[in-house]
Amino acid sequence: MTSNVNSLGQTPQIDLSASFKAYDVRGIVGETIDVGIVEAVGAAFVDVLGLAGQTVLVGGDMRPSSPEFIDAFARGAAARGGLVQKIGLISTDELYYACGALGAAGATFTASHNPARYNGIKMAKPGALPVSSETGLKEIQAATEAYLASGEVPAVDRRGSIAERDVLADYAAHLRSLVDLSGIRPLKVVVDAGNGMAGLTTPAVLGDTILPALPLEIIPLYFELDGTFPNHPANPLEPENLRDLQKAVVDHGADLGLAFDGDADRCFVIDEKGEPVSPSAITGLVARREIARAKATGEAQPIIIHNLITSRAVPELVEHDGGRPVRTRVGHSFIKAVMAEVGAVFGGEHSAHYYFRDFWNADTGMLAAMHVLAALGEQELPLSELGAEYEPYVASGEINSEIEDKAGAVARVREVYEGPEVVIDELDGTTFSAADGSWWFNLRPSNTEPYLRFNGEAKDRETLDSVRDNVLAIVRS
């Protein structure tokens, strides 16, 4: 006999504010996230989004805790009337594909690039609309806390169901329909999956495990799915995690290298010399292709979104090609909201998140990688030369200063730089721009750590070094 109550065990003492973030849930397994919490989240997800009697998708990455978390979420969601479809091992952009293509809400268990002891939940509404603290996540937290306090999830009269579904083949076919790689020149590509989900999605999309072979020779690095990350952390944003890929590209004489993070929603690119291609350059390259494609269908002035830390080369290139650049804050929920609001065809961030209108305004590293492969394979130049026009400026990268009085530090910088020769805006943090266009820098305080983040760019290395050293001296004084 099936009970009409799901017991949640001994979890009410865990403070959920430690794991519920602005855009997702992320915590340490057994400390700030466990099976009981996850089951309560599944129930709350259905309640808050009104999903009783509707399809609810749930999958996860290769982390050791993901399978039991998928099952727990499914139990909670089904108890409250959700028609759960477990979609198994998935990349995060596979979830967005499924939510968009199937018109269903869903969740995936991942902690992206965080170490093995972490796991978390990224959630989306039907159509891949994001669930953030501003669009339901706070309410899901409150409902979860209520279930944990009571110690149980009571089942509704019309209890839901749990079934299984595979979306990998349809995901791969959809991406192939957006970028045709069948006619490019043969390319040798090293792919570092970092033992993450790209080890599953790369053979499906770029290989021949599901679809016909493309003119690509894929050289795999760390394709074995292993959430303990035995080779290096699955965070390509850190330069040391790219070293194996850089060496392999040169050793194999490859045309380029691709590195994905743990849940494979971000992609980083290495040229044939083993040098990183900046995400801003990739944003410019993909923007140019998407502008041309949109114009070919009659769109007069396609809109491209870029966050305020991407290179100034991006809006300059967009305007040159007849598009309209729109600058926005850092963060995927802001990008996705503006994408939808203005009908943008594409958006890019300095963190290697790339957003596509044809992908329900969601981010997908694999689709960005396919655009790079197409751009490279449709002409004869090596990537180092092809990409040079997209990086006319010198960038600092993110530099953190650990400081408690972040507002005071910014005020000191403002005192020095304020004047007719400098334009200052506060869209996200504070951005200082030379009126003659020779340099700019942004200071953004971290919301969770005692860090003030510096990002800058200039026309040449000497100018950048001078501005960077001066600003950091003021900040750290």
UniProtKB/TrEMBL annotation:
Annotated Alpha-D-phosphohexomutase C-terminal domain residues: 398-472
InterPro entries according to UniProt: A-D-PHexomutase_a/b/a-I (IPR005844), A-D-PHexomutase_a/b/a-I/II/III (IPR016055), A-D-PHexomutase_a/b/a-II (IPR005845), A-D-PHexomutase_a/b/a-III (IPR005846), A-D-PHexomutase_C (IPR005843), A-D-PHexomutase_C_sf (IPR036900), Alpha-D-phosphohexomutase_SF (IPR005841)
Matching Pfam families: PGM_PMM_I, PGM_PMM_II, PGM_PMM_III, PGM_PMM_IV
UniProt keyword terms in alphabetical order: Isomerase, Magnesium, Metal-binding, Phosphoprotein
Cofactor: Mg(2+)
Residue span(s) of domain Alpha-D-phosphohexomutase alpha/beta/alpha: 19-146, 170-274, 282-392
CDD domains the UniProt entry points to: PMM_PGM (cd03089)
Family, similarity comment: Belongs to the phosphohexose mutase family.
Protein name stated in the entry: Phosphomannomutase/phosphoglucomutase
